[in-house]
Write a structure and sequence with these properties.
By secondary structure, the chain is mainly alpha-helical. The chain has 8 helices and no strands.
């Protein structure tokens, strides 16, 4: 459908955009270093910021999410996987462990107290549960040697990882275009931030993996 040159251009453009948005995420993360309970987002969470379990969940999630984004990003280039398989495995293990044991559970705790009421809380809770589930299934597929299934579940897992970026992008667009009330924005982007990513992931799975020609034996 597309020439190899067009595919490479699209891939390079995607990685450049991803690196740029990761840089913006780094700027957000740096606001919470050192620990500051009045910084940025926490300044509007007076109802829960004083609770120790929320503090642990929030800072665990924030501090690991940036690393998870980067670890996931370098899992996909085929040349890197072929040339440095050990590198791929170790960063993959970090990606899985950080989501399953830190960022995923922490995100679920934060979801219970999400801005936007029950609608947003439900959206973020489902996101956290699916993030953990998809990542585990990607790990289990690799562990059992099912590389094709591993790729499929990693597409889905990383699509949800990227919701940290897409949620903020959608929020910015809605505020610029419609100037809604802050809580109304959360109710919309809480769903759109990850459902849109998952839809794109399913399209990529269909066109890139499901329809891929088997490698010659």
């Amino acid at each position: 459908m597309f020439s190899e040159g067009a595919k490479k251009t699209a891939l390079y453009t995607w990685y450049l955009l991803l690196v740029y948005f990761c840089y913006l995420m780094l700027l957000i993360t740096l606001q919470y270093i050192p620990v500051n309970l009045q910084a940025a987002f926490l300044s509007i969470k007076e109802d829960v910021v004083g609770r120790r379990y929320y503090q642990i969940a929030f800072f665990s999630h924030v501090y690991t999410s940036m690393l998870i984004l980067l670890a996931g990003m370098i899992q996909f280039p085929a040349q890197l996987r072929k040339s440095y398989p050990g590198f791929h495995r170790w960063f993959g293990r970090f990606y899985v462990a950080a989501i399953l044991f830190v960022a995923g559970p922490a995100g679920l705790v934060m979801s219970i107290h999400a801005n936007g009421g029950l609608t947003a809380q439900l959206a973020f809770s489902i996101l956290s549960i699916l993030w953990i589930l998809f990542t585990y299934k990607a790990f289990y597929a690799a562990y059992t040697g099912n590389i094709r299934a591993h790729k499929i579940w990693m597409y889905r897992s990383y699509a949800l990882t990227l919701s940290a970026l897409s949620l903020r992008l959608w929020k910015w667009l809605f505020v610029v275009l419609f100037e809604p009330r802050p809580m109304d924005v959360y109710q919309v982007v809480a769903w759109l931030g990850w459902l849109g990513n998952l839809l794109i992931a399913e399209l990529l799975i269909y066109y890139v993996i499901q329809n891929a020609k088997p490698a010659p034996q």
